[in-house]
Amino acid sequence: MILTVASGKGGTGKTTLAVSLAQVAARTLPGDVTLLDLDVEAPNAALFLDPEIDERRTSGVPIPEVDADRCDHCGKCVELCRAHALADLGKSEAKRS
Ligand code: SF4
Question: What is the CA angle 38-77-65, rounded to 5?
Fold first, then answer.
């Protein structure tokens, strides 16, 4: 069985619900229970469980940098960004002169 708790505004109780479900499943269902906390900003399910941690891995997300000298404000990066995290504000005053 795979159960997913996803989406929702921060502070709505997703982690509390997920941890509670995992604990109930561990006590009532046969086999192992795996809880994966994939919150990219604050994975904190471990705070509720006090787990024995065998391994830690560092991960990251590449952050693109705009080379202002080469950018012609074509807007492709804004168009392609799936997170809608980019905006092209045009050339700065410093670059116009
Ligand atoms: S606006 Fe065009 S040239 Fe500038 S960073 Fe985005 S994709 Fe590159």
Answer: 75
Q: Which atom of ligand 1 is nearest to the CA of 76?
A: 7
Residues 48 and 16: beta-carbon distance below 8 Å: yes
| Of 1, 2, 5, the residue nearest 20 (C-alpha) | 5
Q: Is the pTM of this model over 0.85?
A: no
Sign of CA dihedral 56, 16, 34, 9: negative
Is the confidence at residue 85, as pLDDT, over 80? yes
Residues touching ligand 1 (Cβ under 6 Å) are 66, 71-77, 88
Percent of the chain with pLDDT over 70: 95
SS3 15: helix
- Alpha-carbon gap, residue 82 to 84, rounded angstroms: 5
Tell which residue, 63, 95, 86, 90, has the closest CA to residue 74.
90
Distance 84 CA to ligand 1 centre (A): 14
